[in-house]
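Quick check before the chapter quiz. The format below is the same one you will see on the exam, so make sure you can read both the input and the output lines.
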Amino acid sequence: MQGHSGSSPAFDVVKVKEALAALQERIERARPKNADPKGVAIVAVTKGFGPAAPRTAIAAGLRQLGENYYQEAAAKYAHVSRPADVSLHFIGRVQRNKARRIAELFDAVQTVDDLGVARALDEAAKALQKTLLVLVQVNVALDQRQGVTLDDVPAFVDSLGGMRNLLVRGLMAMGPQRLGDAPEAFARARACFEQLQRAYPQIDILSTGMSDDLESAVAAGSTMVRVGTALFGARPARV
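Here is the expected output.
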């Protein structure tokens, strides 16, 4: 199974709450003085961990969870009771042949960068009679191949406008491999985000920053970070 890991550790709610508090302190220290008063949302990434991780995250008060692999998530969430106020975000590559299953299990897809995949998700969401929140993945780092190029983002978002069961709420970007390049890359993401906001009033999510580079992302204006190891520790070795 893709994303399958070895024996998953047990999690302590108190320790996860402590890690969450430390994470929130990091975010607050990095936030610019004129930042959005709504703050920065945290998506707890439970990739590589068993069902204990999302259960503990929910118990610790986290309400947005992220997974990278459909098969791993489906197996895991068969054993997780997810309250109605907890949303599940898909943050991995979307395979078109899994669009129906992804649309069924997840509430949001953060990695839309292909119109064919977008159409498949829209058709699946329509059949399921649901609206799927989506973010457009934008390529802001020179060392990446995934994501819509900055110049193509406005036209790409415009093309998504006719897909009635997709609600485009913003952008997602991965940081560069070199942490030193992160501030410039995330600044490009923010500029693109602000350009979109002027044309589309519903755009309000900029998902940038993970455990290692969230300070640069938040300083540049991120409204959402995707964090795993800073909350749960190192992932078990994959087998």
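If your answer matched, good. Strands lie at 41-45, 64-67, 87-90, 108-112, 132-139, 148-149, 166-173, 205-208, 224-227.
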